[in-house]
Design goal:
Chains A, B: This is Long-chain fatty acid--CoA ligase. Two copies of one chain form a homodimer. In chain A, 28% of the residues lie in helices and 24% in strands. The first copy, chain A, has 561 residues and is α/β, with parallel strands linked by helices. Among the domains of chain A are: 180 residues, Rossmann fold; 75 residues, Roll (Luciferase, domain 3); 114 residues, ANL, C-terminal domain (GMP Synthetase, Chain A, domain 3).
Chain lengths: 561, 561
């Protein structure tokens, strides 16, 4: 039997047309440090059409061509967000925090033909231009000194001059909804960055989800502040969802430091904001030092990395803001799970759910694959690597060897096409995810998994331990066993020292808290845990030091079970 | 450039699996008159699997086969809602209010192989069975006397006996998302009923929309009461949206009269309900006569036909419930537009927006086609017939001549595939729809449209007019002109009478309120306006009476402009 429904594709141009007509009065407010620029969604619609005309008629951009942005969150970036995919081209958001070498690498890998760049970011782009083989045009947004571009190979254009006088409507094409719309590279810690190509369909569906009560639930009554950058997984989908629901946007531009952020919130009074934990930590300290009125904020979403529960509680307690925890990644568009508590639970009863990674929506199907390769039950304790499936989840990386499929085995995609997230965790019977580890940091001991993070957290709760890192080391009998590397605090004023008896005490301390088979036999006392450039434990380096014999290992006898 | 997103179809089985796992604790509560039956979504999931096994293994239902339901809103109907489409068959919800002849017609037209029937509805079904050529199985849900089925041709089964002992998991197939999932016939006032076939895709997308803040915005904190029947456009999509978001359902079964409804609301305390205006009108009167505690209700959606603003205000004033107005039809799944006021407007300022038909979501694109066939501007005054386009809008009727397409012109679908709603209205610059007329009741005078409803409303505001109906009659010069048929109240105790001077007075009254060219020249005084069986003005009959010369027409001279 056939369906009698219309064959209407899910396209970014529909979000644009909807937002700029039904919600023509909604606004994008761009902070300028001491005030704000305001533009309606109606104007954003006509300017997006003008940008599309300029790209097509002046810069000769065709369907499928890549147009890159090296921009902060602002009104012009929003115009590019809609104009580029709507005209059938692909928006490539460049992560301005990538090392210059990686930045050049992704532009070349994506074969970008145009780069739209905020004038304040020209010092970052200019030195790279000689290496950017495919870039034909640089479009400079905003006032500023363009002298650094003198003599560069690509043609240089002024954004406003390029748009001026062009038609304010555009005959948006109707490609298949699975056509590429936007491209974002993950800043992988190992190897080259990997490109994820979002389709019109995936962006549209993700936007619908963002505006449901299961996720951010924003409406045209909200002024939403995406502190999360637009070059970081489409600012968690907020710009697209904003046009779907007429949600007003407050764009921070380059003013992301705690002080300017606090000023902006006090002045423009957003009802909602989204950012990574470090932003909230910084804002909390800033407000403690110099109070500002942030009472307009009712809810914030916190994600990007696990958030310390203490930060969530503190923010709520001091400022009356409901903090919502979410999980996702570049490969998941990025939502992901979202931690609303179950119905009826409030206050302290709700916290265990609220600090979890939350529940998955219908469009993100999860499964946990255990150490033996089988699917684990949702019992809140059986751990496995999280794999996900759904219409806004990546099946492959762009142009890479990491494409999925039964005939193309890969680390990141299962043979039946699910994304391997690299996260290890548990799911409760009612769908709450708790991530305990990165899969590469789990100790695989005799067909069972030991959580390095759990051991570390217990060890760091001991008064003698300043820091502790647990890594897997090869073991002839068990495959892998945990090595505990601890930084000790001085005892009785004496210098810190490690000995078998120190380690034995720590093991006894652990024995009260984890199963015996998880207790490390191998111990090392170190001066400090090596860290990555963003301050995370560098376990790769620690494993390498152990492999090179640089750590002095104390081995305790294995305890009988 | 290709997208790297997964090819994961949007299927009803995903809603089922999601709702019965992540939201396994959510509940469907079925009212039984003096108490309720409760079943969790986890149980609904296992019972849906058992039903699918029974249908496949016992009744030999295959993908694409039609399975009909003649049922009230209850837990078993919900199981059929998910089992039948998830197994690849098509759910055909039978409207138990159709005249028996039409009911038999739609079963035969759909070629239903199975009918699931509530035992209380057997007296309706049994007499029809001899006429139902394709029905092989009747499955009786609930206790009751099945003697009326003795000797009938189809095999008779007991629902619970059919499910008992079957496997509680089912290998749901993965058809294309555009596959047929559910079938609903419109109870057209003219001609045969017309079938609309919803796809898995259209149901899934509509569900996502229902749970956004633009529409009902339900969550697992809600207990939602769909008074609107599940045989009426999928109960406005609430059962599917409930599984998407874990929304608890309160099912009224056959207890739809105001008294039992009030008892049910007091006992089970739903937070939300959805029904047509007459239900709310009845409940309002019931509660005035015999108060009950309905304080749990925070919001209700009212739709299906235009709601008198006085009813909305009264319900809010007396019971503190926010009444939300919505527009839709069988052909639109059914949402449609939804009347949330614009941001910042509350109280009296919000009412003009709240009593309108509301705003369209991104997935329902509207246009107004004016009398000259051109698209009308969104200026709040230019009227046109509303046409809509989107992924959950019908493109054709099932098996009918009304299929769309440039080579298949039809009354209900435009050559470029848009649905002609048959409603005439205006849209404001910010997207608020106001429906003023049915297209067939508009007077098409010299290339301009005259709203019959507007003239009627003005006339009925005159103290001498009890009722007034305005219909189009042929005119040699203008194509059509309005004929005003009025029922006069007695003046000064004398019997009601119509005369040229009465009509002249009424025209003068109108002349202060509408443009001169809209003023009727033709007038008739009648005893009462003929009505349809549901109490609406029967303008078709009035036009027929005029055509047959049965009305005494007074013709006034046309006024100069």
């Amino acid at each position: 039997m056939y369906s009698t429904m219309q064959d209407a594709p899910l396209l970014v141009s529909r979000l644009l047309r909807h937002g700029s007509t039904v919600h023509s009065d909604s606004q994008v407010v761009t902070w300028a440090g001491d005030g704000a620029r305001r533009r309606s969604y109606g104007e954003t619609g006509t300017r997006s059409a003008q940008l599309a005309h300029a790209l097509r008629d002046e810069l000769r951009i065709r369907e499928g061509d890549r147009v890159a942005t090296l921009m902060w969150n602002n009104a012009e970036h929003l115009e590019a967000y809609f104009a580029v995919p709507s005209m059938g081209a692909v928006l490539h958001t460049l992560n301005l925090r990538l090392p210059p070498g990686q930045l050049a690498w992704v532009v070349n890998h994506a074969a970008d033909r145009v780069v739209l760049v905020d004038s304040t970011l020209l010092p970052l782009l200019a030195p790279l231009l000689p290496k950017l083989a495919t870039v034909e045009h640089v479009v400079v947004v905003g006032e500023g000194d363009t002298a650094v571009l003198d003599g560069c190979r690509p043609a240089v254009h002024d954004y406003e001059a390029l748009l001026a006088g062009r038609p304010t409507d555009f005959p948006w094409p109707e490609p298949a909804e699975t056509t590429a719309a936007a491209l974002c590279y993950t800043s992988g810690t190992t190897g080259d960055p990997k490109g994820v190509v979002y389709s019109h369909r995936s962006i549209y569906l993700h936007s619908l989800h963002v505006n449901t009560v299961e996720a951010m639930a924003l409406s045209d009554a909200d002024l939403a502040l995406p502190v999360v950058p637009m070059f970081h997984v489409n600012a968690w989908g907020l710009p697209h969802a904003a046009f779907l629901g007429g949600v007003n946007l407050l764009m921070p531009d380059r003013f992301l430091q705690p002080g300017p952020l606090a000023d902006m919130i006090e002045a423009e009074r957003p009802s909602y904001a989204a950012a990574v934990p470090t932003i909230w930590q910084g804002l909390l300290s800033e407000l403690a030092a110099r109070p500002r009125d942030i009472s307009s904020l009712r809810r914030v979403t916190i994600g990007g990395s696990a958030c310390p529960p203490s930060l969530m509680r503190e923010f709520e307690k001091r400022h009356g803001v409901t903090v919502e925890h979410a999980w996702g990644m570049t490969e998941t568009s990025p939502l992901g799970s979202y931690a609303h508590p179950p119905r009826g639970l409030t206050g302290d009863d709700a916290w265990p759910y609220r600090v979890s990674q939350g529940r998955f929506p219908a469009s993100v199907e999860p499964r946990l694959i255990g150490p033996d390769g089988t699917e684990q039950p949702w019992d809140g304790s059986s751990a496995g690597e999280l794999e996900v499936r759904g219409p806004w989840i990546a099946a492959a990386y762009y142009g890479g060897a990491d494409a999925a499929g039964p005939d193309r085995p890969t680390d990141r995609f299962s043979p039946d096409g699910w994304l391997r997230t690299g996260d290890v965790g548990t799911i409760t019977h009612d769908g709450y995810l708790t991530i305990t580890d990165r899969a590469k940091d789990v100790v695989k001991s005799g067909g069972e998994w030991i959580s390095s993070v759990e051991l570390e957290n217990h060890l760091m709760a001991h008064p003698r331990v300043a820091e502790a890192a647990v890594v897997a080391v090869p073991d002839e009998v068990w495959g892998e066993r945990p090595l505990a590397a601890v930084v000790l605090t001085p005892a009785d004023g004496a210098p810190a020292a490690g000995s078998g008896s120190d380690h034995g005490d720590l093991r006894a301390f652990l024995a009260d808290r984890v199963p015996r088979w998880q207790l490390p036999e191998r111990w090392a006392t170190i001066d400090e845990v090596p860290k990555t450039s963003v301050g995370k434990f560098d376990k790769k380096l620690l494993r390498a030091r152990h492999a090179a014999g640089e750590l002095e290992i104390v081995t305790l006898d294995r305890l009988d079970d």
